Amino acid sequence: MPINFLQLLQDSWNFMRNQRQFSAFAIGMTLIIQFAMSNITFPISDITNIDLSGVVLPSILIGLANTFLSALIILNISAINNGSFKHFFSHTSTVLSAFLGLIALSIIGVLPLSIGAVLVISQPDNPVFAIPFMVLGFYFIVKFYLVFYVYLVEKPRKSIKDTVAFTFQLTKQKTLPLILLILLASFVPSTLMSMIEKITMDISFIIPLVFAAFFNVFATVLTFRFYQLYRKL
Description:
Layout: H1 5-18, H2 20-38, H3 52-82, H4 92-122, H5 130-143, H6 147-153, H7 160-170, H8 175-200, H9 206-230
Helix pairs in contact: 1-9, 2-3, 2-9, 3-4, 3-6, 3-9, 4-5, 4-6, 8-9
């Protein structure tokens, strides 16, 4: 049975409407991280003179905080779905126990693309060696899009190796609906955010951040509900 994306969008919106308190708190927490990230500038044009303590370390810490919050939101959505939700931070210990695994999975997922990007930056006149890594990187991004959900939602929790194997098996011959999800959950919000930033750039810098936080939480709800249907295909 094919996934009805219009119904999926409607169900995700209804979830956020019905769970207003949770949604508002999740958006607020995400907004804090978005605000912190917006205050960090990364001088790509002068990458050799980066102030590690002033840029890289805060970026890493905020990235870790974002991973922690994303995992917490996923587990809370799962708890709401199961009727076992208590409060927003009730799954903190679960996230902490899974945190190193989530970081490892994140590194595995972005490693090929990161290598390709480094090769492009270091050898801009000869990008041939970077192409295989870039292609493999985009392939991994698609394949690994649901890996957090597999690692956090599946019971009992799988090992890193089994999570990767399960994720690849899950997406085998079912790539099209996954690509459609990525377009809806990542590409469309990014496009909308670019438009919102252009419209509001002379009004307030906080407005785009609020929209970004909303889109982030909505995309998490959408992806969770997609995952429930996708694993049954």
